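Deliverable D5.2: sample structural annotation.
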Amino acid sequence: MTDSAVQAVALVKRYGNARTGKTALAGLDLTVERGEVFGFLGPNGAGKTTFIRLLLDLIRPTSGTVRVLDADPRDNAALRGRIGYLAGDFRIDGRQTAREALTYLGDLRGGVPAGRIAELAERLDLDLTRRISTLSKGNRQKVGVVQAFMHTPELLILDEPTSGLDPFLQQRFVEMVQEAGAGGQTVLMSSHVMSEVQQTCRRVGVIREGELVTVADVDKLRQSAHRKVEITFAGPVDAEYLEALPGLQNAAVTATPDGGSVLRAILTGSPDTLVKAAARYETTGLLAEEPELEEIFFTFYQDAPRRNGSKGAAA
């Protein structure tokens, strides 16, 4: 057994022929370790859902290899029982009640205790007695969340999982993902809700036009990101010295009406040099804006070179 739950090597998926078709994945290499919660970021059309469908053997790769829980996913019914999957728009036979549908799906996975289903339903405020066809999109998605989590799978694959859920239930979902990770389950989560990723994931991969732009720890990304800083001093300072400090961009020192000074700048990386330099003066105020993952994501997207001759990625 390897330490990876998901491993893709030189994974390519093309739709249509090589000349006029679309390349959804262009030689993607990615490893998700067992027991980690991994965020998969990218806009619609970047290739996230295509990758997930390949993991689930819903489609087959054009070339390259993929392994899931140390197994080949092709025609592997036993492997599917070890996976929990939730798409952004969960659909199921509308004639059943939520309880009937979940019991049936649980039986397909070897049986799930009724108490486990009831516990998750109560947590998500889901009425198990109502027919699926009468449920709103948000309540159908709750059924999807329960079916993905109820058998405590080794691997959870979540593709835009909180679509249709209100903010309160999104937070409940975040708690469930955190608990899954703490319990040793592996989670691969594609999401547009950056706060979900920031609260749950240790690492993230950013995908663009079927290629990985970066894979990095969330904390390290935030530490290396740009921060807006503003330091207020009681009196005059050496503006030329402060503005030339390494790690600062767009630095400017201006005088304040009360005879003091204020430094405003964009800080990249560690604040250590800036803090030590500021300590030479009497400081009366300090403001540093913590970067959000969404800002970091867009920075990578704007800076990454586009693929030459790209026909565009799909899904």
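Annotation notes: The radius of gyration is 24 Å. Confidence is low (pLDDT under 50) at residues 308-314.
The annotation will be released with the project's public dataset once the embargo ends.
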